[in-house]
């Protein structure tokens, strides 16, 4: 029987990026005009917004995605927007698999 993995911990309120501290903020609506946007990296403010309504697993996945945007930005790498988004999605998907494997391996019992 495939038991559901335990839930990950809550997101941190801040984390470290290549160029310094990054704040993490959870909002009920990340973009007032576009409800499908559930996360956003604000480079100038060094802030990541995450939709509060997502599951913890999805929030961690989204944080990995937005931290990838932050790392690209902090490294001074300029990419076409569609390429940057594809890279962030690839990292996000890899992180999601790794997080699930980690949580399953730390399941009690």
Please give a structural write-up.
The protein has one domain: Arc Repressor Mutant, subunit A. It is 40% helix and 19% strand. It has helices at 56-74, 81-105, and strands at 14-17, 20-27, 39-42, 47-51. Helix 1 packs across helix 2. The protein starts with 13 loop residues before the first strand and ends with a helix.
Between the first and last Cα atoms, what is the distance in angstroms? Answer: 14 Å
The rounded Rg comes to 15 Å
Briefly, what CATH class?
Mainly Alpha
Q: Would you count the extended β strands for me?
A: 4
Q: Identify the CATH architecture.
A: Orthogonal Bundle
- What portion of residues is helical? 40-55%
The number of helical elements comes to 2
Instruction: Give the integer mean of the pLDDT values.
Output: 93
Low-confidence stretches: none
Structural class by secondary-structure content: alpha+beta
Neighbour order of strands in the largest sheet? 1-2-4-3
């Amino acid at each position: 029987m495939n038991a559901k993995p335990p839930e990950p911990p809550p997101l941190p309120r801040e984390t470290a990026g290549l160029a310094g501290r990054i704040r993490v903020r959870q909002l009920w609506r990340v973009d007032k005009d576009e409800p499908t946007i559930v996360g956003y990296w604000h480079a100038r403010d060094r802030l990541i917004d995450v939709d509060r309504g997502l599951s913890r697993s999805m929030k961690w996945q989204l944080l990995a995605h937005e931290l990838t945007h932050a790392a690209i930005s902090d490294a001074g790498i300029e990419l076409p927007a569609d390429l940057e988004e594809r890279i962030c999605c690839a990292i996000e998907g890899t992180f999601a698999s790794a997080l699930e494997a980690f949580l399953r391996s730390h399941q009690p019992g």
